[in-house]
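Incident log, support desk, overnight shift.

02:14 A customer reports that sequence design results differ from what the structure should imply. Their input is reproduced verbatim below. On-call engineer (initials T.W.) acknowledged and began investigating.
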């Protein structure tokens, strides 16, 4: 129906007296229903006072069908015959057709549909516009925030103050600002990382009229950066030592507090010992706690104490992680999680209050080189987020790095223990009895990461009351060096038994090292190289003969207190080959002290060798209760605080056999002189009070002197030495060494040496500068 203007007449009492057809069309009331009614009965809402005073405004009528009908109405007063107001004529235009809303521009669509939070503030920091994401972040629709001051819409926190100060800075300075913030928001249940950019909006004159901002939620990127930073920190912070427990502690320090509120590392017991890996048990698993940490001081939330073992049930996340070989996450509400927390509470009731709020845990196995070593556990209480898949990936990466370091430490500890046991087994424990020297020694294995080296020392009794003193050092560290040391130590003892001079013995030893390097591994000779000092002391002549292969010279302290290094030419290290060794000989008074040592005593990266050797000589003159006590004094004064190499120290105090204990006779090369030699020996034994040894001594002297006359060359000499044993020596100018042989029934000779061997404790021969010496020892009863 075509709509027309509406008109109505109302008298002074508010009664409708006229009603146009347009009024009928607008309101639905015909004239017969409208005329005579009060105009108030046709209104849906009372008119405003302002509209009545202005005689124009919006009136809300009630349509005949009951719906409200807002109309713009004008009132025109009507005068009566006497000129007084008698009513009003009301006119109203039909409502215009609604104008369709204009299509949003591309800019408006971009603003509203942006994936980041976009907002506009005026220069007084009041909200002007917000897009849909910003409204979701704030948790309220746009019309609630429009016109409000920013601080009224957020909590009073540091990040809110920073946001407001940056808004003001942009409005005042007219320059954009970009910064990052870790903050929450009214509609978010936890803090997020935000990348925020603010920029000024200016009019044509360049005046700042508003401030726009974009806030991008960069939480995922931020957490990824945090995980990467944690991995980088773990790479530098885990495995700084080759100690299993310390490595586990370093893993806990990385995890707490950024990754977990409580973290622990439990290892299988065999990892901390020297045993081989046992088969994995099928049921419950016993683990030993080696490290734990907590955001709460004192770690009261730990149910297991450090060093204790605990039996972990099959349903527990640690056992599941060990069985499945992967990180296992468990959250509050899950049956196994509840059972696990109950199990911990039953094990340690005093820590129940500290475990309140536990809502998420993760257990990750420690595996390296296919071997399972233990499990690391992380627990969250105050941390609001549960462990998610990305956290499991991070945990496995951290555990993998830590496991390799723990395994390295385990292998090092095991190898070090093996090398130390091997070395202790090869080194002399109780030095053999001999009267030539008084001996004290110390061996200190290195505590450095390089491991046990190949240092060794030995004291070897020789014929004629002499003694061999040996100190050596194999290049390198570990079991291989200890094994090489054992071979060299055995070789030196074998060569010493042959009674070779020091320089000749080192030549044979040098050949041995060369063959070891070539025959065993094909490796470079230098890899199996070694240094060695070999010395022989004769208490009869009081002469010390020595030769060195790349080894530091010994220090000598005379009875008058003067100390110095022995001037000697150290030959090349063993294994170089082709170069000679030079022997040096000293005559020492009785009571002189000789110090033989390895380079670990005086050499270090930050030390001057000359200063260290001078300190050694000075310390050796220190008064000490005993030679053993002097060892400790020397080590304390000379040894580096943290030696990087093994240290072997051998202190020797010389003794002398006086003329009253040695008897010597020159023998003419005539068989008739044998009887005189027997008689001279018998007379000397009587002087020494050894009449009981006369019978055997006569036989030994007779056989040895007879052989020297018959098969040797002059000059011939007989010597008796009274030491801890009775030693009979016969020297001649021939270098041909005798040997035992089995005499047949019809042989006239060949039984002399066999008789000597059966009657004496031991016998042998040695080469001398002018020939050879045949010797035999008889045991003597201990002195009263």
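02:41 Re-run completed on a clean worker. Output:
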């Amino acid at each position: 129906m075509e709509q027309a203007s509406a008109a109505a007449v109302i008298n002074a009492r508010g009664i409708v007296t006229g009603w146009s057809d347009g009024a009928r069309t607008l309101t639905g009331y015909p004239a017969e229903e409208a005329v005579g009614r009060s105009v108030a009965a046709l209104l849906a809402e009372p008119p405003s006072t302002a509209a009545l005073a202005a005689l124009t405004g919006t009136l809300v009528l009630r349509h005949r069908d009951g719906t409200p009908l807002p109309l713009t109405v004008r009132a025109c007063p009507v005068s009566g015959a006497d000129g007084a107001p008698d009513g009003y004529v009301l006119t109203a235009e039909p409502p215009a057709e609604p104008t369709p809303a204009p299509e949003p521009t591309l800019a408006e669509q971009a603003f509203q549909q942006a994936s980041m939070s976009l907002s506009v503030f005026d220069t007084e920091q009041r909200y002007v516009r917000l897009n849909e994401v910003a409204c979701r972040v704030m948790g309220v629709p746009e019309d609630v925030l429009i016109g409000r001051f920013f601080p009224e819409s957020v909590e009073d926190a540091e990040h809110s103050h920073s946001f407001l100060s940056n808004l003001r800075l942009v409005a005042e300075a007219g320059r954009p600002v970009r910064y990052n913030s870790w903050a929450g928001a009214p509609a978010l249940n936890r803090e997020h990382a935000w990348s925020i950019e603010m920029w000024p909006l200016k009019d044509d004159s360049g005046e700042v009229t508003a401030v726009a901002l974009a806030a991008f939620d960069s939480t995922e990127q931020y957490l990824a950066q945090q995980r990467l930073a944690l991995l980088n920190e773990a790479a530098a912070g885990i495995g700084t030592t080759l100690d299993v427990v310390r490595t586990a502690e370093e893993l806990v320090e990385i995890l707490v507090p950024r990754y977990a509120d409580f973290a622990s590392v439990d290892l299988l017991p065999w990892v901390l010992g020297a045993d081989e890996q046992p088969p994995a048990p099928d049921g419950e698993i016993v683990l030993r706690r080696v490290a734990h940490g907590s955001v709460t001081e004192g770690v009261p939330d730990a149910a297991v104490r450090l060093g204790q073992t605990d039996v972990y049930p099959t349903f527990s996340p640690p056992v599941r992680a060990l069985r499945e070989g992967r990180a296992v996450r468990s959250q509050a509400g899950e049956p196994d999680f509840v059972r696990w927390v109950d199990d911990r509470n039953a094990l340690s009731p005093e820590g129940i209050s500290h475990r309140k709020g536990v809502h998420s845990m993760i257990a990750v196995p420690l595996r390296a080189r296919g071997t399972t070593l233990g499990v690391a556990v992380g627990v969250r209480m105050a941390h609001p987020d549960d462990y998610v898949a990305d956290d499991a990936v991070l945990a496995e990466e951290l555990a993998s790095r830590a496991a390799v370091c723990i395994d390295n430490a385990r292998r090092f500890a095991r190898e070090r223990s093996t090398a130390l046991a091997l070395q202790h087994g090869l080194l002399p424990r109780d030095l053999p009895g001999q009267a030539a020297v008084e001996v004290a020694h110390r061996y200190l294995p290195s505590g450095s990461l390089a491991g046990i080296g190949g240092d060794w020392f030995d004291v070897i009794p020789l014929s004629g009351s002499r003694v061999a003193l040996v100190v050596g050092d194999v290049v390198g560290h570990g079991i291989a060096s200890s094994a090489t040391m054992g071979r060299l130590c055995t070789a030196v003892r074998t060569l010493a038994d042959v009674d070779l001079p020091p320089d000749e013995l080192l030549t044979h030893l040098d050949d041995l090292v060369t063959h070891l390097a070539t025959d065993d591994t094909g490796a470079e000779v230098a890899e199996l190289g070694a240094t060695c000092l070999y010395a022989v002391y004769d208490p009869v002549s009081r002469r010390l003969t020595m030769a060195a292969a790349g080894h530091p010279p010994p220090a000598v302290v005379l009875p008058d207190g003067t100390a110095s290094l022995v001037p000697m030419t150290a030959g090349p290290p063993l294994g170089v080959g082709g170069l000679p060794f030079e022997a040096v000989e000293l005559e020492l008074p009785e009571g002189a002290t000789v110090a033989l040592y390895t380079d670990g005593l005086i050499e270090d990266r930050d030390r001057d060798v000359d200063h260290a050797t001078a300190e050694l000589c000075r310390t050796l003159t220190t008064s000490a209760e005993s030679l053993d006590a002097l060892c400790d004094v020397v080590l304390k004064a000379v040894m580096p605080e943290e030696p990087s190499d093994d240290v072997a120290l051998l202190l020797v105090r010389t003794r002398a056999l006086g003329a009253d204990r040695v008897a010597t006779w020159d023998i003419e090369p005539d068989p008739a002189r044998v009887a005189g030699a027997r008689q001279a020996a018998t007379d000397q034994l009587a002087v020494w009070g050894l009449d009981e040894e006369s019978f055997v001594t006569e036989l030994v002297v007779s056989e040895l002197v007879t052989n020297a006359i018959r098969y040797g060359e002059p000059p011939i000499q007989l010597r008796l030495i009274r030491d801890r044993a009775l030693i009979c020596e016969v020297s001649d100018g021939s270098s041909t060494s005798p040997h035992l042989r089995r005499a047949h029934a019809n042989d006239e000779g060949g039984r002399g040496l066999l008789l000597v061997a059966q009657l004496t404790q031991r016998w042998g021969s040695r080469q001398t500068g002018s020939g050879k010496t045949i010797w035999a020892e008889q045991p003597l009863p201990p002195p009263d």
